[in-house]
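Lab manual, section 2.4: Encoding a predicted structure.

Procedure: take the sequence of the chain (331 residues), apply the prediction step described in section 2.3, and record the output as structure tokens. A sample record is shown.
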Amino acid sequence: MTLPDTMRAWRVTRLAEPNEALSLDELPMPTPSAGEVLVRVRAVAANFPDVLLCRGEYQVKPALPFVPGIEFVGDVVAYGSSVDGLEVGARVLGSKIGVLSEYAVLPASDVWAAPESLPDVEASGLTVAYQTAWFALHRRAALQSGEWLLVHAAAGGVGLAAVQLGAAAGAHVVGVVGSAAKAKVARDAGADIVLVRGTDDIVTGVKSATGGRGADVVFDPVGGDAFVASTRCIAFEGRIIVVGFAGGTIQELPAGHVLVKNYSVVGLHWGMYPGLRPDLVDDARAGLTRLAEAGSIRPVVDHVVPFDRAPEALTALAGGATVGRVVIQVG
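Recorded output:
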């Protein structure tokens, strides 16, 4: 396969909001080293960390200028030595900072076969949100069939993944959304009950749904008031999984309350698993592929923007009005 000498890539050239931070530049074609693959990017799913990268607020702070984008679907076009099991032409998913470009180089361990049942725009969003939700619910919370699962931000990318995976596991799901307009998408994803933040009382709604018991598991990517409400409606021996703090206020652990009510607060940083427990990542990928092929999970796409207008995708995501994923169509 003959590859071009250059490619286009969006780069963060200064720290600001996405529409001010990003520049579309012509760069040399990258070359894979040992253990790496070169992929032609088909589509990139926008993630909130991309917005934080543009602002300089993410926990990883690459030196300027850098290419954002952390999740994609594409085709393997070349690979370095010591790469086994991946052939040129394989359609793959992957996650690594630096994929908002026409081509990208990644460690072979960071890519995996894309489920055949999912088209590009949906498959692009299967890696980060769904693996995060998988590890939160199955590894950290040990969610069981028949338990009650409370999901905050249930109409967002990672929230919808948690709703779908919770329903697939046989849990009863209560989803919290930011507006009445977002309620339907959470129900369609498998939520048995949907509460609207600011309109419904979350604590009362959860206790009513569970007959006073409370939620066995809470999936919290929001923080702030959402976390406080969760501590007030968590069940005996319940587990609150802290996934993030997109609401802007980091969760503060009320140790005395944890002791008195006998519940657990558990953190999840999915990015640690590929380096420390790659075997668990392989298990998660296999499980997600099975569920996708069975039709039990399917990433929800809010809208698609062309590569030339990629900053619009991140701006829309930062605004908080999207439902599911915003996808950038690259090639």
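Check your result against the sample. The two ends are 17 Å apart (CA to CA).
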